[in-house]
Amino acid sequence: EPEVTQTPSHQVTQMGQEVILRCVPISNHLYFYWYRQILGQKVEFLVSFYNNEISEKSEIFDDQFSVERPDGSNFTLKIRSTKLEDSAMYFCASSPGQAEKLFFGSGTQLSVL
Amino acid sequence: GEDVEQSLFLSVREGDSSVINCTYTDSSSTYLYWYKQEPGAGLQLLTYIFSNMDMKQDQRLTVLLNKKDKHLSLRIADTQTGDSAIYFCASGGSSNTGKLIFGQGTTLQVKP
Q: How far is Cα A22 from Cα B83, in angstroms, rounded to an integer?
């Protein structure tokens, strides 16, 4: 069964460093998303992406965050200068159509020290 | 703002039925979802219901939607130890752009 793949599964970085989280969405899906879950808190929406542009973003998704689909298969989330409070599990998701069921990856656990 | 609430914990005996409840605030959601998260794993889509339906059954899973009360429930029949996990309710939100609003998750413990 097709699945969303995320790498790495764990990422440790120093505060102020840039990180790139990578995702390979399901191949025929058109909509892509990033969510995050801070330990003990709810899963939160960060951004949705369609047709090579952001379609919606949350207040969390400030200028430190960016997304890119550099080729036909990858979808990345970049955090330019990480803060301690960016430590969280980051989930990538994709869906075949707008507001259709989202399929999530296994997540990348980001730890900022 | 939009919100989804769930109880935090449910414990049942193997073979019993489990019912996990959820309330949401946004009545314009097109879909409502149930996701399952096992330890160390991602969010697995279990089932979903379209907002114009009252009920959906999928093998051991039954979803009930009460739009008037903005209440969603997931019933798992003949609960097994392998069903032990965190179950998240999520609403599609008013924008219907794939921005899901998640509850805090209900930890289901199944005792043998």
A: 30
